[in-house]
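Retry 2 of 3 after timeout on previous attempt. Resubmitting C-alpha cells to design endpoint.
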C-alpha cells in the first residue's frame, strides 16, 4: 500500500506516456497522492487535461510560470514528494539527467530534488542500445537512481527488442519496493563485489573467475530491506543491482580508495574476490616476445581491504562480513581467516571446480560467527543473499 505517500510523476515525451495515465490511477487506488509534471514533448502524447483530471491535482508544466512560482516554487515542488518517478524516461530525459542539464521544469526538478528518483525508460530499441544511452544509464545508476525496465517486446515503431516501458503495475511494484519501510531503512551498508584486474601491461592483466553474481545479489537483497547500499564493484560479469550507488573500480588499490571514501557505514560486506598480488612494476608499454627469454614478472602484495577496515581503531563499521573462498578444509580455514582478519562474520564456501559454484547460479555456504559454524543448504545465490540480508537486519 502507498497510503499517505506522495509521488512527483514526471511524464516525458514518448508514446508510452499513455500508460502513465493508467499509472496515475493505479497509484491513487493504493492511496498515493500524485503531483504530475508534463514535459513539452509529453504534451504531444497525452493532454494536460487528462493528466490533471486523473491526478485530481494541479499539473505543472512550466519553469517560468509566475502563478506556479507564487503558489509553490520549483525547488519546493522538487522536495514535496517521497519519490520522484520519471515515466516514460525518454533517451533525451536520461541524457539531461546524466549530464546535469536544467533547462526546463522537469530537468530542473530532477537537479534540485533531494528525494530518491525512479525512472522507467521507454524508447526505440536502437536508441536504448545506443552507446550514449547505455553510458547515461551507467551514470544514472551510479548516481543512485533506481531503474525499472525497459521490457522486451513489439514497439509502436514496428521494431522488436528492449525499449518498451514497464507496465503500470510493474512500475507500481518498483515504487512500493522503494517506499515500503524495511528493517534496514536508515542503515548505510557497503558491499564490495566482483574480481579485481591487476595490470601487467596496457593490454594484459591478472584476474580471477569471480562473476560478481553473489555480491550483486547481496546488494539487491540489502536494498530490498530498505538499506542505502554503496556497491563498490570490480569488472564483474553480473549486472550491478538497481537502486544502489555503484562505484566501479578495476584494481585492489582503487577498491581500497573507494571503500575508504564510502566510510562511515553501519555494516560492510566484503564479497569481492580481490587479487592478493599485483605486478610490482606494470609496464606502460605492451611487453614483446624477445629472444632474450621469458618476461620476469615481479609481484607486490595488495592491501588487504577487509583486514584494514576490520582493524580500524576509529569509525569501524558495526558489523563486518568477509568471504572465504576455499578449496579444502573449508570450516577450519575460514574460522582461522575470521580471526586473522578481525571481521565479525565469514561467509565461507567451497569453490573447488567440482562444486560449480564459481560462476554458477547456486552457492552452498557456511556462516562463521562468534557462535561457531552454521552450515546452510545449497540454494540459489539470490536465496543466500536474502538469508544473509535478513541475518544482517537482525544483527544491526
Ligand atoms: N579481501 C580483501 N582484500 C584483499 C584480499 C581479500 O578485502 N586484498 C577480502 C575478500 O573480499 C574476502 C576475504 O578478504 O572477504 C577473503 O579473501 P581471501 O583472498 O579468500 O583470503 P586471503 O586473505 O587471501 O587468504 P588465503 O590466501 O589464505 O586464502
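Retry 2 succeeded. Sequence:
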Amino acid at each position: 500500500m502507498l497510503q499517505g505517500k506522495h509521488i512527483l510523476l514526471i511524464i516525458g515525451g514518448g508514446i508510452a506516456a499513455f500508460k502513465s495515465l493508467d499509472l496515475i490511477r493505479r497509484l491513487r487506488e493504493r492511496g498515493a497522492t500524485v503531483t504530475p509534471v508534463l514535459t513539452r514533448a509529453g504534451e504531444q502524447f497525452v493532454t494536460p487535461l487528462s493528466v490533471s483530471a486523473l491526478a485530481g491535482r494541479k499539473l505543472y508544466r512550466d519553469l517560468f510560470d509566475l502563478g506556479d512560482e507564487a503558489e509553490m516554487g520549483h525547488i519546493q515542488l522538487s522536495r514535496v514528494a517521497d519519490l520522484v518517478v520519471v515515466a516514460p524516461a525518454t533517451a533525451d530525459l536520461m541524457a539531461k539527467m546524466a549530464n546535469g542539464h536544467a533547462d526546463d521544469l522537469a530537468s530542473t526538478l530532477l537537479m534540485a530534488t533531494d528525494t530518491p528518483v525512479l525512472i522507467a525508460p521507454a524508447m526505440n530499441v536502437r536508441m536504448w542500445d545506443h552507446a550514449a544511452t547505455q553510458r547515461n544509464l551507467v551514470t544514472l545508476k551510479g548516481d543512485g537512481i533506481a531503474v525499472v525496465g525497459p521490457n522486451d517486446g513489439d514497439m509502436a515503431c514496428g521494431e522488436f527488442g528492449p525499449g518498451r516501458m514497464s507496465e503500470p503495475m510493474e512500475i507500481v511494484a518498483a515504487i512500493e519496493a522503494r517506499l515500503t519501510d524495511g528493517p534496514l531503512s536508515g542503515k548505510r551498508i557497503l558491499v564490495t563485489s566482483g574480481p579485481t584486474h591487476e595490470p601487467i601491461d596496457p593490454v594484459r592483466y591478472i584476474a580471477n573467475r569471480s562473476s560478481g553474481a553473489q555480491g550483486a545479489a547481496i546488494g539487491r537483497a540489502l536494498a530490498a530491506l530498505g538499506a542505502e547500499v554503496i556497491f563498490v564493484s570490480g569488472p564483474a560479469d553480473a549486472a550491478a543491482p538497481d537502486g544502489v550507488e555503484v562505484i566501479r573500480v578495476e584494481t585492489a588499490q582503487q577498491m581500497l580508495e573507494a571503500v575508504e571514501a564510502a566510510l562511515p557505514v553501519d555494516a560492510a560486506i566484503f564479497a569481492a574476490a580481490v587479487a592478493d598480488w599485483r605486478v610490482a612494476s606494470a609496464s606502460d608499454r605492451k611487453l614483446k616476445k624477445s629472444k632474450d627469454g621469458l618476461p620476469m614478472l615481479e609481484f607486490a602484495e595488495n592491501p588487504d581491504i577487509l583486514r584494514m577496515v576490520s582493524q580500524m581503531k576509529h569509525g569501524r563499521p558495526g558489523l563486518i562480513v568477509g568471504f572465504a573462498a576455499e578449496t579444502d578444509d573449508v570450516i577450519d580455514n575460514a574460522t582461522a581467516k575470521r580471526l586473522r582478519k578481525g571481521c565479525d562474520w565469514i561467509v565461507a564456501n567451497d569453490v573447488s571446480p567440482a562444486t560449480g559454484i564459481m560462476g554458477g547460479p547456486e552457492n552452498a555456504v557456511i556462516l562463521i560467527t562468534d557462535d561457531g559454524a552454521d552450515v546452510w543448504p545449497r540454494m540459489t545465490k539470490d536465496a543466500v543473499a536474502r538469508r544473509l540480508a535478513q541475518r544482517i537486519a537482525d544483527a544491526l
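Attempt log closed. DSSP finds 14 helices and 21 strands in the chain.
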